[in-house]
């Protein structure tokens, strides 16, 4: 019996351009993670980070290759003879090859994609307008036992001057390159402790952006203690994005987010948050929660912040700290946390299927990355499209390293040291993280947060191995949600088309 010719499937995996396979060509599977959603089987393709639905024929062929390691096209067709036609097999293998699920057995492994080392337009500049705070949170990475920079007794000014803030604006506009807009995030310490400089900087930035034919967008993070009526009016009138650092209902908030005398902050911030939410409606207001060993009731926290207080979105982050600290999350804690995240994520899925808003930002952000096929060489935008500025004008890897000489990338006046940036990007590429090489979740994780690695292991270069099972479990959950939406409500995913916002870590 003669067999039809498989369509030409030239790809970068092929040893010769324009390779035309034959029935005797042996195939093997490329790396992928299999998952089920809405009664269908999917493959999350590594390292391309695409999601591919497997029909019955594709699933049968993938299972055969999984069992045998390699097999010829001829042998695969014979193994499913009677169930699928030869034409179906060849067409399906062509689809699988184009999708990078299978390749020729002798094809070399894809080379890692090295980022072109040319100046990269800055998308977000995080400006630390102060390194002081009016709270004394035990778990704080900036002031607690895990701090990198001594902001209390060090050489840096405690508050950024108006002149330095203006230099930050000029830097952001200049380094944004060909981008039509620049984004500035004000940060601290407690950001609003330097509100006078912040206010003047917004006005200056808007004028300078107009002068150079660009737009400028602003956001800030605050603990809400200083949200006075005039501040709230300013934030609303200027359409400044606001993230509130808050940990939940009073008994949870007051465990760690306290003043220097030990008094909890909930009673003070709750009415201020309510006033902000009532007045500031030009942009969604989000809450950012730090989770600790003692505060892992994600469902309770979410319901209070979203359902009762009225935050549009709530995002959660495990505390960044050394493992011996009393608030560090244990392995059992991460298992519990994953279960809570999964329950809340399933609530998100149900709301999405019913056309209702749900404010669990962790799942939304991961769905966006999956939809856009993010295959990260680096865990975040730090050192690429995002940099941080200390109160004295030093430009750093990100805001969490602001003021650290060891992580300095330049200054506002002198610009970015491209040699330093190049060396960092070369040494921190995921291809150098050998522990990540066989992990199917690496396109989403890329080894994890640099600051987390520095705190845990003393170096920004290592992967966050204590997070591995957590990351894989969470990514698998989000893949299930993505697959279900793709089958049952694909229009929901269109909101992620073309969206590309540089996310900055929140304190």
Spatial strand arrangement across the major sheet: 12-11-10-9-8-7-13-14-15-16
CATH architecture type of the largest domain: Alpha-Beta Barrel
Shape: globular
Provide the CATH top-level class of the largest domain: Alpha Beta
The overall strand count is 16
Classify the beta-strand content into a percent band: 5-15%
The largest sheet, given as strand count, sense and whether it forms a barrel, is: 10 strands, mixed
**Percentage of residues in helical conformation:** 25-40%
From the structure above, extract its key features.
TIM Barrel; single chain; Outer Surface Protein A, domain 3; 507 residues; alpha/beta; 36% helix; 15 helices
Explain the overall architecture.
This protein has helices at residues 56-68, 73-79, 86-98, 162-175, 195-211, 229-237, 250-256, 266-279, 298-308, 331-353, 361-371, 418-427, 442-445, 450-457, 468-488, and strands at residues 26-29, 32-37, 40-45, 51-54, 70-72, 102-104, 124-128, 181-187, 215-222, 241-245, 286-291, 313-318, 386-389, 394-396, 408-411, 415-416. The protein is α/β, with parallel strands linked by helices. The protein has 2 domains: 26-104, Outer Surface Protein A, domain 3 (Alpha-Beta Complex); 124-354 and 383-430, Aldolase class I (TIM Barrel), CATH 3.20.20. The strands form 3 sheets. The chain has a 10-stranded mixed β-sheet with strand order 12-11-10-9-8-7-13-14-15-16. α6 (229-237) links the parallel β9 (215-222) and β10 (241-245). α4 (162-175) runs parallel beside α5 (195-211). The longest helix has 23 residues, at 331-353. The protein is globular. It starts with 25 loop residues before the first strand and ends in a 19-residue tail after the last helix. Residues 1-19 and 501-507 have low confidence and may be disordered.
């Amino acid at each position: 019996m003669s067999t039809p010719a498989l369509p030409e499937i030239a790809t970068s995996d092929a040893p010769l351009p324009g390779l035309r396979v034959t029935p005797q060509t042996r195939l093997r599977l490329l790396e992928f993670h299999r998952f089920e959603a809405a009664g269908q089987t999917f493959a999350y393709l590594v390292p391309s980070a695409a999601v591919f639905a497997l029909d019955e024929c594709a699933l049968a062929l993938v299972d055969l290759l999984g069992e045998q390691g390699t097999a010829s096209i001829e042998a695969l067709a014979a193994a499913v003879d009677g169930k699928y036609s030869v034409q179906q097999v060849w067409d399906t293998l062509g689809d699988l090859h184009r999708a990078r699920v299978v390749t020729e057995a002798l094809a070399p492994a894809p080379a890692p994609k090295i980022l072109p080392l040319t100046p990269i337009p800055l998308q977000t500049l995080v400006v630390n307008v102060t390194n002081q705070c009016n709270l004394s949170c035990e778990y704080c990475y900036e002031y607690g036992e895990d701090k990198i920079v001594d902001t209390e007794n060090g050489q840096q000014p405690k508050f950024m001057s108006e002149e330095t803030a203006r230099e930050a604006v000029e830097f952001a506009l200049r380094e944004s390159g060909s981008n039509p807009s620049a984004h500035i995030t004000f940060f601290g310490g407690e950001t609003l402790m330097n509100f006078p400089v912040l206010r003047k900087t917004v006005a200056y930035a808007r004028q300078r952006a107009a002068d150079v034919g660009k737009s400028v967008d602003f956001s800030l993070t605050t603990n809400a203690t200083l949200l006075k009526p005039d501040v709230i009016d300013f934030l609303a009138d200027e359409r400044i994005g606001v993230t509130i650092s808050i940990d939940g209902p009073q008994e949870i908030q007051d465990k760690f987010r306290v003043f220097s005398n030990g008094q909890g902050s909930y009673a003070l911030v709750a009415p201020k948050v309510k006033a902000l939410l009532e007045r500031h409606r030009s942009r969604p207001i989000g809450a950012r929660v730090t989770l600790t060993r003692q505060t892992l009731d994600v469902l309770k926290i979410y319901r209070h912040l979203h359902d009762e207080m009225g935050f549009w979105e709530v995002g959660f982050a495990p505390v960044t700290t050394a493992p011996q600290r009393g608030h560090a999350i244990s392995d059992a804690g991460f298992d519990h946390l994953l279960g809570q995240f999964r329950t809340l994520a399933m609530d998100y899925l149900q709301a999405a299927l019913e056309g209702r808003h749900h404010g669990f930002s962790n799942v939304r952000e991961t769905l966006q990355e999956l939809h856009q096929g993010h295959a990260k060489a680096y865990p975040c935008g730090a050192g690429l499209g995002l940099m941080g500025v200390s109160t004295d004008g030093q430009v750093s890897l990100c805001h969490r390293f602001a003021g650290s000489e060891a992580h300095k990338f330049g200054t506002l006046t002198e610009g970015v040291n491209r040699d330093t940036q190049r060396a960092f990007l070369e040494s921190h590429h995921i291809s150098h993280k050998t522990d990540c090489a066989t992990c199917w979740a690496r396109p989403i994780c890329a080894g994890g947060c640099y600051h987390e690695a520095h705190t845990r292991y003393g170096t920004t270069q290592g992967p966050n191995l204590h997070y591995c099972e957590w990351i894989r479990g969470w990514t698998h959950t989000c893949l299930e949600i993505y697959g279900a939406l793709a089958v049952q409500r694909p229009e929901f995913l269109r909101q992620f088309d073309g969206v590309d916002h540089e996310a900055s870590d929140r304190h």
